[in-house]
Design goal:
single chain, alpha+beta, 2 domains, four-stranded antiparallel β-sheet, 5 helices, 12 strands, globular
Length: 257
């Protein structure tokens, strides 16, 4: 091996070491006590996903994905799911987040808003709060009004026992202001995300909303000592630190909630 090759290897090792050091410093900074919030999440709010980077199960990477929902605006009223424009993310909210919303949205496909880039914002996650209560009540109301009683019963059962109770309910630019608005740190977490305008169109009209295009902490790595816990119905205490990044601080098992 000549001198230039040895130099390249040494330089690569130094870069790798420096990168790892920066990551570790960031992790340590995020986990300074006390955390910004701690949410008690179950398998309803956290879906497992394995990363088959290694052949043996012991070394396989395991991460959990936040399963969040929206209270979504529809022509027929509100719905509750993982897709569509949040009802609260309207024109006025977009303006407060710094978007130029002066131009009326057009029913034509090629518009001012379609070309807009997303903006990084702070998002509010609400656990088992008013948004979930409304979703649950809507399922109960459907059972009282729908002709297909079996489907309505299944929908209510899914809402009561399986559907995520974690909703994105607000956005802002100032963490202090958001925390003052949502002071309960056991039911509200603030995280980083991205929003961009979304124009909902039909043949003759258009209405401006916003769309959450990214939540920057969707994936939570599971340390080896907690791997066995997530094989069954579980409860995880997930902390969100000073950098608004999540990590698991304790784990247990519990029947489905």
């Amino acid at each position: 091996m000549n001198r230039s090759h040895r130099w390249l290897i040494a330089a690569g090792a130094c870069v790798l070491a420096l990168t790892n050091a920066v990551v570790l410093v960031g992790v340590a900074s995020n986990r300074r006590q006390p955390p910004d919030s701690v949410l008690e999440l179950t398998q309803r709010e956290l879906g497992t996903q394995w990363s088959w980077m290694w052949r043996d199960d012991e070394n396989s990477g395991l991460s959990l994905r936040l399963e969040y929902r929206f209270e979504t605006a529809r022509d027929s009223g509100l719905s509750y799911g993982a897709f569509g424009p949040p009802a609260w993310l309207d024109r006025d909210k977009l303006a407060s987040l710094g978007f130029d919303v002066m131009r009326p949205p057009s029913a034509d496909a090629d518009t001012h808003y379609d070309r807009m880039l997303g903006r990084d914002v702070l998002l509010v996650l609400e656990l088992d709060g008013p948004a979930y209560a409304r979703a649950l009540q809507a399922a109960r109301d459907r059972l009282g009004h729908r002709e297909n009683e079996h489907d309505a019963q299944e929908d209510l059962k899914r809402e009561e026992q399986e559907a995520s109770r974690l909703f994105i309910v607000d956005a802002g630019l100032d963490q202090t202001a958001l925390r003052q608005r949502y002071p309960d740190r056991a039911h509200y977490a603030i995280v980083k995300g991205t929003i961009r305008p979304y124009v909902r169109r039909d043949r003759t009209s258009a209405k401006l909303y916003g769309s959450v295009t990214a939540v920057h902490c969707e994936t939570i790595n599971v340390p080896l000592q907690f791997r066995g816990t997530v094989a069954k119905p579980f409860v995880l205490d997930v902390a969100f630190g000073s950098r608004l990044e999540p990590w698991i601080i304790s784990a247990g098992r519990r029947g489905a909630l």
